[in-house]
């Protein structure tokens, strides 16, 4: 298994920038895996994507992978560093699936991560730090993303929390919980 790193934190905290810094420091060919689709009709979303694209080195390979993340990871060459940004968007792409279908997708991803020889950096949003969503789909999103982040964190060599303009290495500062839910 390659090196797995998880970078998590709230919106606009600098998660992506920190993950990009780690990818550059890897010294490997970087493959940026975007989980969002660009929507030219949504100018605000398009500007966000452009900002991310403009910040990245031009020699990075960029793949748009809104669904087939496991297959994309499985196809990676060992000498690469994969940067997946973001897991929250990827989870949102599956919200219409029933719980059993989602569990199968989640299991496939976590099993694939353990087999990939490439280094992998995952960016994930923290969603459960506030009010419980008042609608079922919001709770489903929060619960699915939270569970994925927890399980991926247990597979990660390093877990970083980016918040308040600071990066904390949780792998050094904390202790992992057992993998039970």
Automatic annotation (TrEMBL):
Which Gene3D superfamilies is this protein grouped with?
Answer: P-loop containing nucleotide triphosphate hydrolases
| Pathway named in the protein's UniProt entry | Cofactor biosynthesis; adenosylcobalamin biosynthesis; adenosylcobalamin from cob(II)yrinate a,c-diamide: step 5/7; Cofactor biosynthesis; adenosylcobalamin biosynthesis; adenosylcobalamin from cob(II)yrinate a,c-diamide: step 6/7
Keyword Isomerase: yes or no? no
Catalytic activity of the protein: adenosylcob(III)inamide + ATP = adenosylcob(III)inamide phosphate + ADP + H(+); adenosylcob(III)inamide phosphate + GTP + H(+) = adenosylcob(III)inamide-GDP + diphosphate; adenosylcob(III)inamide + GTP = adenosylcob(III)inamide phosphate + GDP + H(+)
Listed Pfam families:
CobU
Specify the signal sequence span.
none
This enzyme's EC code(s)? 2.7.1.156, 2.7.7.62
Instruction: Supply the InterPro entries for this chain.
Output: CobU/CobP (IPR003203), P-loop_NTPase (IPR027417)
The role this protein plays is:
Catalyzes ATP-dependent phosphorylation of adenosylcobinamide and addition of GMP to adenosylcobinamide phosphate.
Residues annotated as catalytic: 52 (gmp-histidine intermediate)
**Biological process GO annotation list?**
cobalamin biosynthetic process
Protein origin, superkingdom: Bacteria
> What is the protein named?
Adenosylcobinamide kinase
- Provide the binding site for GTP: 9-16, 34-36, 85
């Amino acid at each position: 298994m390659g090196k797995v790193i998880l970078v998590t934190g709230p919106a606009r905290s600098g998660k992506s920038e920190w993950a990009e810094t780690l990818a550059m420091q890897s010294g490997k060919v970087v493959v940026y895996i975007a989980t969002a689709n660009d929507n030219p009709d949504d100018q605000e979303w398009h500007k966000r994507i452009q900002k991310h694209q403009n910040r990245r080195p031009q020699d990075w390979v960029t793949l748009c992978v809104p669904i087939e993340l496991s297959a994309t990871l499985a196809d990676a060459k060992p000498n690469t560093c994969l940067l997946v940004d973001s897991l929250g968007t990827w989870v949102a792409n599956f919200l219409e699936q029933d719980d059993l279908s989602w569990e199968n997708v989640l299991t496939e991803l976590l099993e694939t991560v353990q087999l990939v020889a490439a280094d992998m950096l995952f960016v994930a949003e923290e969603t459960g730090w506030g009010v419980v969503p008042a609608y079922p789909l919001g709770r489903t999103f929060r619960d699915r993303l939270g569970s994925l982040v927890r399980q991926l964190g247990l597979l990660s060599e390093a877990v970083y929390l980016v918040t308040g303009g600071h990066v904390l290495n949780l792998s050094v500062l904390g202790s992992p919980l057992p993998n039970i839910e």
